Amino acid sequence: MDLQTGLEPALLVDGDGDLALATRPDRRHLVVIGNGMAGCRAVEELLARDGGNWRVTIFGAEPHVNYNRIMLSPVLAGEKSFDEIVINPRDWYDDNAIDLVTSDPVIAIDRDARTVISRSGRTVGYDRLLIATGSDPFIIPVPGHDLPGVISFRDMNDVDTMLAASAAGGSAVVIGGGLLGLEAAHGLALRGMQVTVLHLMPTLMERQLDEAAGWLLKSALEARGQVVLTGADTAAIYGEGRVEGVRLKDGREIPASLVVMAVGIRPAVKLARECGLAVGRGIQVDDHMVTSDANVLAVGECVEHDGQVYGLVAPLWDMCRSLADGLIGTTNPYRGSVTSTKLKVSGIDVFSAGDFSGGEGCEDIVLRDAARGIYKRVVLRADRVIGAVLYGDTADGSWYFDLLKKGTDIADLRDVLIYGQAFAAGGGPADPSAAVAALPADAEICGCNGVTKGQVVDCIEAGAASLDAVRQTCKASASCGSCTGLVETLLALTLGADAVESGPKTMCGCTSFGHDDVRREIVAQGMRSIPEVMQLLHWSTPDGCSSCRPALNYYLLCAAPGEYRDDQQSRFVNERLHANIQKDGTYSVVPRMWGGLTNPRELRAIADVVEKYEAPMVKVTGGQRLDIFGIKKEDLTAVWADLNAAGMVSGHAYGKALRTVKTCVGSEWCRFGTQDSTGLGVTIERLSWGSWMPHKFKIAVSGCPRNCAEATIKDFGIICVDSGYELHVGGNGGIKVRVTDLLCKVTTEAEVLEHCAAFIQLYREKARYLERTAPWIERVGLGYIQDCLLTDPAERVALAERFHHSQSFSQDDPWQQRVAGSDADLHQQLEPAE
Amino acid sequence: MTPMIDIGPVDAIPLRGSRSVTLDGQNIAVFRTGDDRIFALVNRCPHKHGPLSEGIIHGHAVACPLHNWRISLETGEALGADKGCTPTVAVQVEAGRILLAAPIRVAA
């Protein structure tokens, strides 16, 4: 768009090259000053009502799209990345043809000409102007307040400064023991700095917490290693050229390389005042957020409505609704907000709402449970709740807040009020979901995104059957997550506990997704690398952890055999070095012995290796082969070369892979044998060796029901009988012994091989990483396995074919590859230069 | 000033990988993290002396291959609930070469 004239281009073309929006010359132009939560929410509300008649230009002082400012603390603490706190990504601006001007704040408003002027000199005309400039941090004007190293905690730039400072270590002073200051202190402490909090008042967070809760909080923070000084009056910040410390009025000095001022915020009213709008503590607005100029509106922390100024996010949502309704000519007056605060400080749950200062006619009901660190106080006046403070257990916060907002008469509840809603409603130690069930539809569930219980329930009833789905649709619990429990309870209440698609068990701390979600998305989106998965699924760590990386490597390998390039750095050492690490850092080596059979040549080669490399021990394993112990990492390749020369390959005794196929001697020698169990075992091992699995996988073939090969405690066990073969699955001889389930009985060897391949592939595709077949079958049920393998022969054949396809890439002996020189660095130390 | 010893090019270690080097009889694990930083620790987990150079590297930490203790590459301290510390070794990168400080001997 031509910003000088405010004219629109004839067409707008979106990123796909499609025609996005045709010109509507009659559309009115809304210019928004401030690309923050208030400004963007107001635009969202307006577009939802009347998108066709407006075009929008947004000016932002920062270089970013709209992000959730209240989530800066988790970014500082390292729990979230910037991308995760973005509310309106670039696509939102593009899709709605919003002109976003970043890093170029408006510096003047000309109300007569109806234009705004930006710092770079752009002049843009408006039909309606919306001022959403938020607030500025208050900087106490003590000497030294302008030294380098003294910052506020208001935007991404402040967070970046704090991160840079904490990387250098040392001490930090946070001035201000309110919510913002404590969050800054918590984040800096987590980042390794020694933090001192200076608070002018006698107790922390005195605007939100009463004295008792403030003291509990102080004790808890001190137990976490922070120094908290209350009644601390800052006299000066000292330092030569940059900050070196803070001096208090009582003479104490606290050294610091970083000082964060978080003593409060003030509505940012400079622009409004300079252009002559009516300004009190904030920009004065009416019930539809219109200022003293009918063409200029204002919303958010910069406004004063009915004498009130708000410094919290919750009132925004109501303000923006009234603003948007007013713009389209609908009456919906904003009537002010009663605010509550529910937050986590250093992992401690704190809630407060209303008036808890006490006074004439007020009564307190207080519950303390010191052992559990819980404090609850409800303040009453004339049988109405007028305030509440909860510390340590905030589950009933929304109930008290609702009673408060509605002015409910609680005379009948009074005796049990303090025990919470569930107890008050049911009179007993209660079903925790009763409290949520009893909430009215307009009760707020998610404070970050302004979502009510009714909206969450609507969204669930419209098909969002999991926590993730709810987060994606109505955004409840998608920001700070503190209402996750409430949303989960609503899911259970709305759908029935059994119908909720559970995904609460995440893969690891790096992601909010469970194993099954991740696998499904890998397949659905055709992902082909670990960084791609982490990017698309919003991993919270830069490169995962030792839990998720091996799992992702396996899932990708399984989803795209032949295409996916194995990531050695995401393999456990045993799978990276194709040998088993031992407690002394040496390795054990197990060559494959097909079906447990061996011969003089192999035995001689093993004996030679043992002598040549001075292996201190050789042992017969439970899987019918020989394990050579005490091989040094540097010697592994040479050992393998010798074993390869005798025709032996890797036994994969180190891998989440097919281990062995154990056999008995069968009909060839045994007087009880019914089939050639040894020969069948060898055939099966030739079929399945080299395959990577979710966990180790063992097979056995017994030649008769005497079951000498112990096939009924293997992942896949075959028991030969006169009439054919019994196929057993899901056995385990480990910590928790589990006897197999009988899958089915078949009559030919070909059927055995097909069922075996299909079962392995089903396990490979469906079980979670590190889940053996025994717990997998316990989880999904034998019926599911039988459905997949027995109901439809075509499906079984397809599974077996996918296994064979995968095997065509995995049956290269990894030892031979290393002998031929691949990854030679893995086995060599670095050499210092002379 | 401790003399710095050239132990090879940065490229000799893959991203999120590690290799070891023996200096003056002391085995040192040298790590290259995903953000392409180089760290060095005495190659011995404070828990049961596992070779840290064989662990999975994530962020600025390594998971010991023996019992999955996570050790900070920056400080050598065990992370999480575990307690223990392995000595760090001063390291710098100059013109693509890794330079290690000769280690201080640590009693086994």
UniProtKB/TrEMBL annotation, chain A:
Cofactor annotation comment: Binds 1 siroheme per subunit.
MF GO annotations: 2 iron, 2 sulfur cluster binding; 4 iron, 4 sulfur cluster binding; flavin adenine dinucleotide binding; heme binding; metal ion binding; NADP binding; nitrite reductase activity
Q: Per its UniProt record, what PROSITE patterns does this chain match?
A: NIR_SIR
> Would the keyword rRNA processing turn up in this protein's UniProt record?
no
Q: Which UniProt keywords apply?
A: 2Fe-2S, 4Fe-4S, FAD, Flavoprotein, Heme, Iron, Iron-sulfur, Metal-binding, Nitrate assimilation, Oxidoreductase
| One Pfam family from the record | Fer2_BFD
Please list the cofactors this protein needs: siroheme; [4Fe-4S] cluster; [2Fe-2S] cluster; FAD
Region called Disordered, residue ranges: 809-834
- Residues that bind siroheme, according to the entry? C708
Q: In which pathway does it act?
A: Nitrogen metabolism; nitrate reduction (assimilation)
Task: Tell me its family.
Answer: Belongs to the nitrite and sulfite reductase 4Fe-4S domain family.
This protein is called what?
Nitrite reductase
TrEMBL record, chain B:
The molecular function terms of the Gene Ontology recorded here are:
2 iron, 2 sulfur cluster binding; metal ion binding; nitrite reductase [NAD(P)H] activity
Q: Which top-rank group of organisms is this from?
A: Bacteria
InterPro entries (UniProt xref): Rieske-like_NirD, Rieske_2Fe-2S, Rieske_2Fe-2S_sf
| One Pfam family it belongs to | Rieske
- Domain (Rieske) spans 7-100
Query: Iron: is it a keyword of this entry?
Result: yes
Q: Recite the UniProt keywords alphabetically.
A: 2Fe-2S, Iron, Iron-sulfur, Metal-binding, Nitrate assimilation, Oxidoreductase
Tagged with keyword Metal-binding: yes
GO BP annotations, alphabetical order: nitrate assimilation
Record-annotated membrane-spanning stretches:
none
Give the matching NCBIfam families.
nirD_assim_sml
Name of this protein: Nitrite reductase
Tell me the organism. Croceibacterium mercuriale
Please name the taxonomic classification of the source.
Answer: Bacteria, Pseudomonadati, Pseudomonadota, Alphaproteobacteria, Sphingomonadales
